Structure formats: structure tokens, C-alpha cells
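Hi U.,

Before I forget, here's the chain from the pilot set. I'm dumping it here mostly so it's searchable later in email.
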Amino acid sequence: MNIGIVGGSFDPVHTAHLILAETFAEQYELDICFIVPAAVSPFKNKTNASDDARLDMLRLAFAGNARFVVDDREIRRGGTSYTIDTLYEYYAEFLDDKIYLLLGSDAAAGFTNWRQWTKILSLARVCMALRPLVKSDGLSIGSDEVFYSDEQEEGSPVYVAIAKFSSMLSSLGVPDSNLPLPVAAPLIEISSTDIRQRIADARSIRYLVPESVRNYILDNRLYKK
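Structure:
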């Protein structure tokens, strides 16, 4: 089987998360795709919504799509959620299967600071998609600048990003078989940060999140000032 993993804070889950996850699952013919909310991200502040609320919203968002499974293992484990710890668990459970890990290009900027990042590349095939926090004029990865241009031969900014990121990893000794693969998802400029701010400002979030999630947020008065 092909197993997918999509991690994040999901505070809250939004429409771009869903489109990216669906594109990832379709492109790599995933049999199961696990959606894994972090307990505490190593790179972000504490979440605004409770663990239970984030799980509820994810289950509402992915309801009716049997390929996706909301997995609360990082929340149950507690503490800081390190990707490598989760990958070791999945690897033990799916020894005979292929594991794909979705990584946003915003996370790629600091990937070599992740715990056991080389081991991550050997346990799973990392797949990379563009995220809104990536500026069109460049992204710093270590000492390099990754520039995106529609004039590139590949015809898509994500392939330019992949090429530059892969080149950097290769220079650090990563074998070709462990280099990241592209996810050709559309770049949709929706962020959880902006959604929380819109709610705090009493502005609409309609269509930025699934309607079931919007109703849950309103009913539970989440992200209010």
C-alpha cells in the first residue's frame, strides 16, 4: 500500500489544507492518508484552539472521504511533536508499504534543523508543495536563495523549488533516492493565522474553511478576542 502522512497544527484546518491533501493523495495514489495534528510544534507557539477542538474540526473537514484518517497519536503522546518519532511508529506499522510525507515549502526552509532530518528522508519519501508563505521573489534555505520563475523549463514554480531544495540536500550528501518529490497542487493563499485574525476582527471566514468547520467555530466561539 501507499501510505501518506500530513502533519500540522491545523489551528484551524482550512480549504487549502483539504485541496493540498487531496492533490497529494491523488498524485501518489495513496491508499490511506493520515492527518496528524501536532500536540506542540517544535517551531510554533502553543495552539489557540484546544486539542479536542482541532481534532473535531479535522474530523468534520474530512468526513465522507474514506481515504483520509484523522490520527491523534501525537496529541496522545503529548509534549513536543517531532516528525521523526511519528515516522518511526508508522514505519513499524507499515513495514511492507511505502510511506510518503507531505512537506510544505515553508517548512523546507528549516528542514535541516529538524530532529534526525536525514533519517526522515530514509524512512519516508518526502513530497514538497508550495505554501503561501513562500514569496514569489525567493525563499531562504540555509545560505541559498530559491527563486521561482514560470520561465523555467519545468513550467511550474514547485519544480523550481524542488530542484533548488534537492540541490542543497545533495550537497549535504543525501542520495538521489531520498530526494523530495513534487506535489503539483495549486497555490492557494489561505492561512490559519489569517483565519484566526479575521474571526478576532468579526470578519467572514465563509469559504475559507468547510461550512461544517465554520459552524463549529461559531458555535464554540473559537478564536474570539
